[in-house]
Amino acid sequence: MQTSKPPTPPPARTYSAVLTASRRITPPASREEVRHLAFKTGDLSFDGTLGNCIRVMAPGQLGNPWHTRLYSIMDLERRNDGTEFAICVRRCSYIDDFNGEEYQGVASNYLCDLRPDDSIQFAGPVGYPFVIPEDKTADILMLGMGTGIAPFRTLIRQIYEKIGGWQGRVRLFYGAKSPLEMLYMNDENNDLANYFDQPTFKAFQAVSPRPGLGAPVALDKALEQNAAEVWEMLKRPGTRVFVAGTGNMLAMVDRAMADLAGSAREWASVHAQLRSSGRWSEVLY
User: Fold this and answer.
1) Which CATH architecture best describes the domain 14-126?
2) What does this protein need as cofactor (predicted)?
3) Where in the chain is the domain with CATH 2.40.30.10?
4) Cα–Cα distance between 236 and 261 in angstroms, integer?
5) pLDDT-derived band of residue 74, with 50, 70 and 90 as boundaries?
């Protein structure tokens, strides 16, 4: 049984936006439903930028007026009459620890069920943790799972479309349960293919060896297969490491990196240097 929680305090500044398009980006055969949602707000004071997050205010439960969740802004275009932006949402469910029953995720199902012309309330923008270095020779290593691809899609677009002339290596290691669920890298939607001809960009896919049995995504195997380059990047001054995805992926990343380093102690030392110098950033959910 779920228990009630104290009401969530209202955000300091809220906006409204209208849904202009809702597009499924996982193939129909996939068990995962992930949607690319486009909105437009007519409020000219909204000053969000690519990579910022917005705090969506879904209708609340158990006495709460709303249920809030953060989503990354993936596309954004300013016009004279407002701002158009897009977010990526996976329809979620969870198992209640007390009674073992499955419940729909409040915010994700609310958003996935929206139809064009429906409106939402949101707050923000909230800061973006993945800051592109000023040095175009810096290496960038991205590790993502699930909808963690959303901020990386934005990051890659900024590097090659807005900045341009990037000389450092840009490497994306992305994990999903199956090839069907490789967001923005599947038959339904393959946006990242636009950057495969960039000489400094490479993407490596990692899927579960037995998705039907719940086997974990083999992100560690993808890192192992590229061990020499990954370790060289981690040791190079100036390299930025960005991690985005589910909270349980950190343990997998730590084990994989310790294997690359030859010991947990050596990896802990390098990891500490990356963190202390501000070159390691993560967004987990």
Assistant:
1) Beta Barrel (2.40)
2) FAD
3) 14-126
4) 14
5) confident
Residue 146, number of CB atoms within 10 A of its CB: 22
What is the radius of gyration, based on Cα positions, of the chain?
20
Length of the chain: 285
Q: In what order do the strands lie in the sheet with 82-90?
A: 66-72, 53-59, 119-126, 14-24, 34-41, 82-90, 75-79
Q: What is the CATH number of domain 140-284?
A: 3.40.50.80
Instruction: List every span in the chain annotated with CATH 3.40.50.80.
Output: 140-284
DSSP codes of every residue in 60-90 = --TT-SEEEEEEE--EEEEETTEEEEEEEEE
Helices 264-276 and 227-235: crossing angle in degrees, nearest 10, is 50
Q: DSSP secondary structure string, 173-188?
A: EEEESSGGG-TTSSSS
**197 has a pLDDT exceeding 60:** yes
Name the region of 245 (left: φ>0; alpha: ψ -120 to 50; beta: rest): left
**pLDDT digit string (tens) for 110-168?**
999 999 999 999 999 988 778 899 999 999 999 988 888 888 888 998 999 989 999 99
Reading the block at residue 74, the tokens are 């993936």
Q: In what order do the strands lie in the sheet with 240-245?
A: 201-207, 170-176, 140-145, 240-245, 280-284
pLDDT of residue 55: 93
